[in-house]
Write a structure and sequence with these properties.
255 residues, 19% helix, 14 strands, 8-stranded mixed β-sheet, alpha+beta
């Protein structure tokens, strides 16, 4: 039996994980998020996963303010604008892509400013102006006791367990590009830094990433099936504001 002195902090811990989209499946639809408009937007239509019919939807997290997402055109391309004000929510699409079908991931973003006080390696300041989030299946029997308990608590709070592994592509203002940051709360979430500092702000940056190779780089093992794709701009930990634009997200299945 877990003592009550431990349960409180652990539940707070699980809520914090969900609130920062570290649980890429643990959320409920935001009632005022304009989910129907998002699902039929030009950005959503241009964002294809290659497998699956689930719609993109805006997801909120327990006890967190909701960021504002709005499809719009930016510099002549379909985009998803987000403004976060001491908030954290995400736009996500559920998929089911087996490991042997994982191919190249194409996406883009435009960031006008970094979050000066953010530090992705510290739980109290773990915010990013942009995140692209991939959640994967795997053998949860290999979880540590801490992660197994966290997964159970997350499922109690949100209806979905902790994904086996979550890979995030992020923008850091401290860590070097191509470095991997292990989440300070659980090693099952790892962040791959694509950009750092302010040298490439205020312009569209386009990426094509090898999902399998990036997963191996981050976790040291082959990936399981991909279960969801999400984007998120969050400022809940630093209590700050940030805006960004995401271009269409496309996952090209392997040949």
């Amino acid at each position: 039996m877990i003592e009550s002195t431990a349960v409180g902090p652990l539940f707070k811990f699980a809520v914090a994980l969900a609130a920062t989209a570290l649980l890429a499946g643990c959320a409920t639809p935001a009632g005022d998020s304009g989910g129907a408009a998002l699902a039929t937007s030009g950005w959503a239509r241009a964002s294809t996963s290659g497998v699956g019919d689930a719609a993109w939807s805006h997801q909120t997290f327990p006890g967190k303010r909701v960021s504002r997402y709005a499809p719009q055109r930016k510099d002549g391309r379909e985009a998803l604008m987000v403004h976060a004000a001491s908030s954290a929510s995400m736009v996500r699409r559920k998929v089911r892509i087996e490991a042997d079908r994982l191919g190249q991931l194409q996406f883009s973003w435009l960031v006008p400013a970094i979050i000066d006080t953010a530090d992705l390696a510290r739980r109290e300041s773990d915010d990013s102006p942009v995140r692209l989030i991939l959640a994967f299946e795997g053998d949860r029997a290999s979880f540590t006791a801490k992660d197994a308990l966290l997964s159970d608590l997350a499922e109690t709070l949100t209806g979905e367990p902790l994904p086996y592994a979550t890979l995030m592509y992020v923008w850091s203002n401290r860590s070097e590009a191509e470095s991997v940051i292990i989440n300070p709360r659980t090693s099952r979430i790892r962040k791959l830094v694509l950009e750092t500092g302010s040298g490439k702000l205020s312009r569209w940056l386009n990426y094509e990433r090898d999902v399998r190779a990036d997963f191996v780089k981050a976790f040291g093992e082959p990936p399981g099936a991909l279960l969801s794709i999400g984007v998120m701009t969050d400022t809940d930990n630093t209590r700050s504001e940030a805006s960004a634009w995401y271009g269409p997200v496309r996952l090209l299945p392997a040949d």
